[in-house]
C-alpha cells in the first residue's frame, strides 16, 4: 500500500473509532448506541461561575472509560453549561446503566424527537373583504384567545352582533342596511378557513368527520362586509380596503375578483398597493375561469395570486350501472344506499318519479345542488351529476338533499353511452363513506384560472396553488335534507379559488407572526420558493386531465406551510421597484399616480422590465431568444450559510447562474447573482424548469417559464 494512502487510512480508522468505539462480545442489539441526555449535579464547592471549570474533562468522569480515552476525540454530541449542567452522548443500554449509577448523576434521559411546531398565527390580524360572518358559529368562539394587539384600531360595527377576541372587529359597508350576519355563507367559510378555531366533530352530514381548524387558529379576524349574493361593488371594496388598512390588519384576504383589467382601473390592485406600502400582505383568488389559458385575475405582482387544487380525500358515492360497471363519484350527503332503479338522462318533461336522473352539468349555470332540488321536485329518487368535459377527472362533493353522485367527465361519457345503448338502463348509488389518502393528489382543479397573465405576461401567474376542492368549512346554515345539525355547528363542503385564498392568508399570518419585520414581498417569496411541484407519489403535480400541470397552472407549486416559515433566502421588492416596473410596463405618469399616489414617477425615475423585478419566479416570451437578468436574495436563515445553485432546464435552453455559489456570513446579508437563459427562438415555443439555491437546510426554488 502506498504510504500516504496507508496514513490516510489510519487517520480515517481512528476517526471512525472516535464515533463508535469497539464494544466486544456483545449482541448487536446490546451494542447499538443511541443518544442520551445526562444531567449532573454541580461539583463540590460549585460556584455560579462555571467558566473556571473545564467542563469537558469533568463530564468525561461520568462516562465509561473507553468512551473518554483519546484526548482528540470527544465522546460528546453536546456539552451544556447554561440551560442545564450535563451533556448529550451516544451510549449502549449497558453504558447508560453504568452512567446512571455514577455519583453526581442527577438523571439520564433517552433522546426524543420533538415535532417542528409551526406557529398558529398568534397576534396576527387577518382582514377579509367578504359577505359578512356568522359570529355565533363555533369556529369563531374566542375561548383561550388573547386580546387583540395594541396596534389594532378597528371597531366592531356590526349592528347588534358582538365581537370577541377571535373576531375582533369589522364593518358592514353595504350602505348599512344589511344584517351583520352572512346571508350568503361565503364570508363565514373564508374566515373559518383562514383562522377558525379548532372545532371537534365537524362534518358535512357525517362526512369528513374530524376536527375543523383554520390555517392560523390563533390569528384574529376582522370582517369587512362588502359583498352580497349578487357580488361586490368597487366602491364598497375600496371602502373595505380603506377601513382594513386604517384598522391595522396584517393580512388582507380577498376571495373575489372580476375580469382582468389594467392596474389603474382595477380597484383591488390599487387598494392592495396602498396596503403593501403599509406592510400589509394581500392574497387574492386567481379566479374560477380555468382551464382556459390567460384567465387569471388579480395579477398585480404586489399581491399573492392563488389557484386551487384538490386534496387527498374523497366522499365516495359509487354509481353502479345495470351492466355491472361502477364509477366512483362524490357526494357530501350519504343516506342509506339507493337500490337499483330505472335510469334516465336529463331532467326533461318526462316522468322522473322513482327514477335516477342523470343530469348534464355542461351548459348549465345552475349549481349541482339546485339541479338536485329540481330532480327531487320532479319526483326523482336520485341524481347522477355528469361532470362536464372541461372538468376532466375532477369530482365535487355537495351537500345534496337527495341521494346523488358527481361523476367525472370520462365516467359521465360512459354513463351517457350506457343509457343510449341500453333498453332498460338502471343504476344504484352506493355510499362508501369518506376516504382519506386518495391519489393522485394534489391535482389542479379544472376551474382554477391559468396564466399567462393578460396585464403582465412577464410575471408568472398564478403565484401558488393551495387546497380549494371539497374544503370543509364553517357555514351559517344547515345543509342537506336533515335538520339535526345545530346551526352554530354547520359545516359545508365547498370548492373554488375563494377557498384556497384564505388558506394562503392563514399561512401568511403564521409567517407574519414569526417574522413581524418581513415585507409582504418577503413573505410572498417565502411561500413561493418553498412550494412543492411533485405530488404524494413524487410525480409532477397533474392537472384535471391527469397530465402534468405546467407552471401556468400551479404557479411556483403547491404551498408547503412548514417550509414557508423558514425559507433560508427571500427575494424582496420595495415600493420604488414596483414603481419602476410599472413605468417599464408602459404605464404613463398619470396612470402610475392612480395606482401608487406618486406624481411624475416615470419621468424622473428608473424604468425596469418585468423580468428585472426581483420576483421569485421568471416568465419570458419565447420570441425573445434570451434573457439575462439579475436577482438579489436576502439571507434570512443561519448567519453563516452556503448555497449552491442547481439548474433544471430542458437541454434546448442554455442556462447559467453566476456566481453558482453564495456564501453568507451575516443575517439579512444580500447577494446579487445573474441568470442567463438562451434558446433558439425559431425552435423553442415553450420550455419550463427552475433554478434552486440549495444549502444543507434549505431549497429555494424559482420556477422558469419560456412561452
Ligand atoms: C448517535 O446515535 C444516534 C441514534 O440515536 C445516531 O443517529 C447518531 O448517528 C449517533 N451519533 C454518533 C456521533 O455516533
Ligand atoms: C471546599 O471548600 C472548602 C472551603 O473553602 C475547603 O476546605 C474544601 O477542601 C473544599 N472541598 C473541595 C472538594 O474542593
Ligand atoms: C364524529 O366523530 C366523533 C368522534 O370521533 C363522534 O363522537 C361523532 O358522533 C361523529 N359525528 C358524526 C356526525 O359522525
Ligand atoms: C370503499 O371504501 C373502502 C374503505 O373504506 C375502500 O377500501 C374501497 O376501495 C372503497 N371502494 C371503492 C370502490 O372505492
Ligand atoms: C447585474 O449585476 C452586475 C453586477 O452587480 C452588473 O454589472 C450588471 O450590469 C447587472 N446586469 C443587469 C442585466 O442588470
Ligand atoms: C460566522 O463565520 C465567521 C467567520 O468564519 C465567524 O467569525 C462568526 O462567528 C460566525 N458566526 C456565527 C453566528 O456562527
Ligand atoms: C431563425 O429564423 C430566421 C428566419 O428564418 C433565420 O434568419 C435565423 O437564422 C434563425 N435563427 C436561428 C438561431 O436558427
Automatic annotation (TrEMBL):
It comes from the Eukaryota. Keywords: Glycoprotein, Hydrolase, Protease, Serine protease, Signal. SUPFAM superfamilies: Subtilisin-like (SSF52743). Belongs to the peptidase S8 family. PROSITE patterns: PROKAR_LIPOPROTEIN (PS51257), SUBTILASE (PS51892), SUBTILASE_ASP (PS00136). Residues 612-706 form the Subtilisin-like protease fibronectin type-III domain. Residues 1-24 form the signal peptide. This is Subtilisin-like protease fibronectin type-III domain-containing protein. It is found in: Secreted. Its main location: secreted. Residues 77-113 form the Inhibitor I9 domain. Residues 121-535 form the Peptidase S8/S53 domain. The active site is at residues 130, 186, 498. One of its GO terms (cellular component) is extracellular region. GO terms for molecular function: serine-type endopeptidase activity. GO terms for biological process: proteolysis. InterPro entries: Peptidase_S8/S53_dom (IPR000209), Peptidase_S8/S53_dom_sf (IPR036852), Peptidase_S8_Asp-AS (IPR023827), Peptidase_S8_subtilisin-rel (IPR015500), Peptidases_S8_3 (IPR034197), S8pro/Inhibitor_I9 (IPR010259), S8pro/Inhibitor_I9_sf (IPR037045), SBT (IPR045051). The lineage of its organism: Eukaryota, Viridiplantae, Streptophyta, Embryophyta, Tracheophyta.
